Amino acid sequence: MFKVLVIAYYFPPMGLSGVQRTLKFVKYMKKYNWEPTVLTTGNTGYFAHDMSLMKECENAGIRVVRTEGLDPYSMLSKYKTIKMPPEWLRKLLSRLSKTFFIPDNKIFWSKKAYGVAKELLEKEKFDIIFVTIPPFSAFRMASRLSKEFDISLFVDYRDLWTGNQFEFNLTPLHKYIHKRMEYKALKIADKVIAVNRKVKEKLLNSFPFLTFEDVIILPHGYDEEDFIDVKPVPKENTKLRLTHAGIFYEYITPKYLLKAFKKLSEERPDVAQNFELIFLGHLRKENVGLINKLGLQQYVKNLGYLDHRETIRRIVSSDVLWLMVGKKNSADAHTPGKLFEYFGTRKPVLACLPDGAAKMAAQEYGAAFITEPDNVEQIKQALLKMHQLYKAGRLPKPNEDFIQKHRRELFTEQLTKSFQFYLRAL
What we know:
alpha/beta, Rossmann fold, 7-stranded parallel β-sheet, 13 strands, globular
C-alpha cells in the first residue's frame, strides 16, 4: 500500500465545512490502496466542534498525528468551543492578524508541525505529501519538506491564496510578499488541485509557469454514506421549510433574503404564513437583531449549531435549501462546500449567487431558483414561485447524472489515480 502524508490544520474534531473535504478524501483513500497519515492540530479552541465527524474519522481507522502550536486557536484550547464574535470584530481582528502575520496566523503551528513532519519522514517512507490550504503557512511548510526529502507534493486549493474573497493587504508590500511566497511554494509543488475551473483559470493566469496539466480540478462533493438511514424530522404542519445551513460573514449574509421575505409578508401575508425559515449554524447577534427589527420572529426558527449528522437530517427534512455568496473579490471562484451537500439531498435550492463557479454548478444541478445575491425583488419573486410550485406539488427535480458525478468517493478515486499517474511518470 502506498503512503501519503496529509497536512491539514482544519480537521475533526473541529467543525464547520472547511474540515469535511479533507476528512472525506482520507476516509476513502485506503479503498484505493493509499494509506493516509494526517498531521493536524491538537487541542484547539474553535467556533464549532463536531464529534460526529471525529467518530467518522475513528471508524475509518485513519491515523492522526496531532501537534499544538502558538496559533490563536491552540492558545484558546482551554475554552474549547468559543463564541462567534460580531462581524465587525471578526473583520477587525482578521485585518490586524493579516497585517502582522504573513502569510497567516498559523505560522507558529506550521513551524511546530514542520518538526513533527520531519520526524515522520525520517522514520517512515511516504510516497506523496498532500497539503490542503488555507492556512497558507502549511503550504510553505509542506514545500520545504518536499524539497528537503525529495517527496512529491500535491497542494489542494480549497480557496485561492492571493486574490481570495477575504484577502486584506495593508500595503503593496504585503501583497508583494504574499505573491512571492505563493510563487516559491508553487514552484516546488508537483501538482495543484483546484475546487473549480475559475480557481484553475486564476492560478494559470497569475503563475504562467503552471501548465494546464499541472492543475487538476476536483470539485467539492457529497458523501453518499451521510444520507443512509437518515430519519427525517416529522412535519408538524404543511408549511414550506426553507433552510440555511452554515455561518454568515459580511459578504455572506441573510440580509437580502430577510428583506425580501419582509416585502413578501407585507404584500402577500397569505403566502408568507406558509413559510418556515430555518437557520442551522451560527446566527450572529446582528443577524438576530435584523430579524427582530423586521418583525420576522414568527417565521424564523434558529436551531443553532448542530453536528454534521443532525444537520444532514435537518436539510433532508427541508423542502427548499438556501445559500448565498456575496459580490466580493473573486466571488466567481468561490464554491461553498455546503452547496454540494445540498445537491446530495436532491432538494430544490434557492441560490442567491453572482456569476461564477457556484452559479454554474447550481444551473447544472437543475432544481435551483437562481437570483442575484443582493436583488431583493428577484429573491421575493423566487419565494413566490417556489411557494406556487410547492402548493401544486411540482417543485423542480434535479439532474441525477450531475449529482452522481459529485460523489466524494469518486473524487477520492480520481485523486489517488492522479497520485499513481504522477509517480509512474517519474
